[in-house]
Design goal:
The N terminus is likely disordered. The protein is an alpha+beta fold. The protein is 37% helix and 14% strand. The strands form four sheets. A seven-stranded antiparallel beta sheet has the order 1-18-17-13-12-9-8. Strands 7-4-3-11-10-2-19 form a seven-stranded antiparallel beta sheet, with helices on one face. A three-stranded mixed beta sheet has the order 14-15-16, covered by helices on one side.
Length: 622
């Protein structure tokens, strides 16, 4: 026994020193959750019940798109930090075309939502809660478009699990307690009060954990969608046309009328015309190649290109040689993310509106090489500015003088000895969920839906919780000239599903929740697998770190210069090195997720599923 222990110690020491750098965690290790395995299909999402909905659809012969739509519907019905009035962003790999396509189901700013309107109310940003925080609902349209275009089943079949849940399901403690905690906000909105507070007037007014939570209005709305589909089928319409008949009922029929009426009754701006004019967009995703792996993200109305920019820069470093989570590795990634997030905070916005974002320059390999010349390898740069990508697409930057003054009008927070405040972290990590699915036919889906989280303002008798995504706009063009609120415009959101292909075949489908954390932790997850050889489950659980130096996309849009959250197991010598470099350190016991991912094992013809030890996320495979 002593010989085995000594051998193990010597192997660990040899491995650590062979990296020629500090490293405190050598993989493989025993994970807290087992990996998922499957041959025929796999589905992972934010709640076990919602994953079960996907498994039900798979078991009936549905493909990965059908199953992902069922999981999306279930998570919305469970208020898994989103609801039916929120927004959906998806990447889909189509095995028939061998292409990745993007589903843009982000709602838009309604009529009257101008910078002047919000400023007239004394606001620096649109509000966090209530009807004035609401973009037009996007998730119903996104779900029905995905199902119509790429699924194989009827809307009736796919919505069946969610409709059963709307009839009544045992609510989980996490959601039930969030309702109780936020009941003062909920009571501002009469339709929300009716749904969320079944014990009004009692000491605990929210449902108890495990209580059967009933949503009659939502059930009626979903039934209207199914009725519209079934009536169209009876008239001889094909499956696809019938689903779009349900789409039209939501956005142009009686459901739309009630959403518009009740939103305006409660002080909001959404009109019937806003709903009728809105359309789901099927887009080309953005992509960069990292060491032979094609990594796909949504366009620049999301923060997704941040990860692509970071990969372009990191390609120029020997990350593996630095050692996993060494002070040098953490510092390098932090500085690269500084540069990418500064570009995000200034240049990203809805490409359907002028001015045109300089994405060709931002995603060029040459720009990445120029950008990393600014990195100080010995200390943090707390005053990093957006770069100049325009020369890399043959243009002159019209914002040169503005960038020199950028950040002067922002409020930067001090970092107390106790770390970031609870309010700051709540805004910074505003949650959502993710949905990952794959099948043996080759369909792969990655979704990061969100919006309409508790304490949502519910739209009248529809049971639909309205989005709160307006807060991601800015009102001052000095802050970001590409993301100033306008009617019909999509805000620049944090939501960022991910797909990767290798040798022309799916390699990874991955996503996570939690606001501005998303791309920085997805980047680390990806590098865990590609650079450090971790399995997908190891990579989801591996201790990550978080930068707080970018401007938050929620609430007061604040940042903490030099703010760095480390995992509690980070050793003292690394902490001291990072403190010396100018970082303001705080710690969390779990820093990895929740990340959900599917790895495609082409050698053995199987799927590996990973879901981090950070929340209720999990899935099923077969």
């Amino acid at each position: 026994m002593k010989i085995k222990i000594l051998t193990s110690i010597l192997l660990t020491i040899a491995t650590t020193f062979s990296a020629k750098s500090q490293s405190f965690n050598n993989f493989p290790v025993t994970t807290q959750k087992p990996p998922l395995h499957g041959k025929h299909w796999m589905g992972i999402t934010g709640k076990p019940l919602a994953a079960t909905a996907g498994a039900m659809i798979f078991s009936k012969g549905g493909n990965a798109v059908d199953a992902s739509c069922a999981m999306l519907a279930a998570t919305c019905t469970m208020w898994d930090v989103l609801s039916w009035g929120g927004e959906t962003q998806a990447l889909i790999y189509n095995p028939k075309t061998k292409k990745v396509i993007a589903i843009n189901a982000m709602g838009v700013a309604p009529t009257g939502a101008t910078a002047e309107f919000y400023k007239s109310k004394g606001m620096k940003y649109p509000p966090e809660y209530g009807p004035l925080a609401a973009t037009t609902p996007g998730t119903p349209g996104g779900l029905m478009t995905m199902l119509a275009e790429y699924g194989s089943m009827s809307l009736k079949d796919v919505l069946a699990p969610a409709m059963q849940m709307a009839e009544g399901y045992p609510i989980e403690a996490q959601t039930a307690n969030a309702i109780e905690k936020d009941k003062a906000e909920i009571k501002k909105w009469p339709y929300s009060t009716k749904v969320f507070l079944p014990h009004l007037g009692q000491q605990r007014e929210a449902p108890d954990a495990g209580e059967i939570f009933v949503q009659k209005d939502l059930l009626a709305t979903l039934q209207k969608l199914v009725d519209a589909e079934q009536q169209a089928l009876k008239k001889g319409k094909q499956r696809k046309e019938a689903i779009y008949a349900a789409y039209d009922r939501f956005y142009k029929g009686d459901i739309a009328k009630e959403i518009a009426r009740s939103t305006r009754e409660q002080g909001g701006l959404i009109t019937e015309q806003d709903l009728a004019n809105w359309k789901v967009k099927i887009e080309e995703p953005l992509m960069v190649n990292y060491k032979g792996i094609e990594v796909y993200k949504m366009q620049q109305w999301t923060q997704g290109p941040v990860m692509l920019q970071a990969l372009n820069m990191l390609e120029n470093f020997d990350l593996k040689g630095m050692g996993y989570n060494s002070s040098k590795y953490v510092h390098t990634l932090y500085q690269v993310m500084n540069l990418a997030f500064a570009d995000r905070d200034f240049y990203y916005g809805d490409p359907a509106f002028a001015p045109e974002e300089p994405m060709k320059g931002l995603l060029s390999k040459e720009y990445a090489k120029e950008r990393i010349k600014q990195i100080d390898l010995e200390k943090n740069d707390a005053k990093v500015l957006p770069g100049d990508p325009y020369p890399f697409e043959g243009k002159k930057n019209p914002y040169t003088d503005q960038i020199k003054k950028w950040g002067n009008f922002h409020a930067a927070l001090d970092h107390s000895e106790n770390g970031p405040s609870e309010k700051f972290m709540k805004e910074f990590t505003a949650g959502t969920t993710s949905v990952e699915a794959a099948d043996e036919e080759g369909w792969v889906v990655s979704i990061t839906p969100s919006g309409g989280w508790v304490p949502a303002c519910i739209a009248g008798n529809t049971g639909v919780g309205l989005s709160q995504r307006m807060q991601s706009f800015v009102l001052d063009p000095r802050e970001n000239p590409f993301n100033v609120v306008e009617p019909g415009k999509r805000p620049r959101v944090t939501l960022t599903p991910s797909l990767a292909l290798k040798d022309g075949k799916p390699f990874l489908s991955f996503a996570k929740q939690a606001g501005d954390e998303q791309d920085q932790l997805l980047l680390q997850f990806f590098l865990n697998m590609v650079e450090f050889g971790m399995t997908v489950q190891e990579a989801t659980e591996a201790p990550s770190f978080k930068t707080l130096q970018m401007y938050g996309s929620f609430g007061a849009h604040e940042k903490i210069p030099g703010g760095l959250i480390l995992n509690e197991i980070m050793p003292d010598w690394t902490r001291k090195e990072l403190s010396r470099m100018g970082y303001k350190l705080s710690y969390q016991p779990r820093t990895s997720g929740p990340i959900n991912a599917i790895y495609f094992d082409w050698q053995h013809g199987s799927f590996w599923g990973g879901s981090s030890n950070h929340g209720e996320d999990y899935g099923f495979g077969w």
